[in-house]
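[Automated response] Your request has been received and processed.

Submitted sequence:
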Amino acid sequence: MAILNDFRRALLALLFVFLPLGAAQAAGDFIVLCYHEVENEKTGTLARTAVRASDLAAQFAWLQANGYHPVSLQQILDSRQGGPALPDKALLLTFDDGKRDVFTRAFPLLKLFRFPVVVALTGHWMNVPDEGMVDYDGVPIQRSEFVSWGEVREMQRSGLVEIASHSYDLHRGVPANPQGNTQPATTTRVYSEGVYETDEVYLARLRADLRRNSELIEKHTGVPPRAIVWPYGRSNRAAQELAVELGMPVGMTLEDGINTAHTPLPQLKRYLIEES
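Generated structure:
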């Protein structure tokens, strides 16, 4: 009975994601889902953005049984360039942050279902020494709780996993005003010593960060990222244009909604899977 209840809970959680979307997707439409942590059955209270591995398996099974077709980033790009049309009920799966459970818990399920996925990595966290601590949005976490580059390459070799940039060090807040409030680093002119960043300094900071992470990912995987998954889903036109210039024509937000054939690639919408 407990297993059945868990399945029903997972199914209902997923249905709540899709209910607002309507019964059908038009030709060329696709949905993007955003996952984070994947926990085991022994984990007590889950983080707001976490799912249990058993719930993730139930969600994947529900998608498969209900005619959803997980597609790769390449299929989306091909369809935009005059290639094969996307299948009905097309769906792109994404996992943010590069926590190690994407390799130990999500990746086995992805291989089982043969679902393609985009995994977004934050370079500053990946560069922490093996025995060091990662500042994970103000919470110290051991580096071992994130994927290693060897694990990244193993996922990539499967042909199911595409690696995206999650910035090098923009996944944090920066001083935004004289009152000391912090705002996302991607969209905020840093306030320091009584002055705000100029446009020139701001753009140079973004350019250096995005380029550094792209070069880091290419160094360790042999392939530069084609997508930027914006930290906190936050970006602006200037950031989007820089990403495109640096070889990342696809940008992902956290704005709810279906992506149509006309949704700009630098502004793709995603549904955040989280505790309701």
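Summary generated for your ticket: The longest strand covers residues 90-96. Residues 125 and 239 are 21 Å apart (CA to CA).
If you did not submit this request, please reply to this message.
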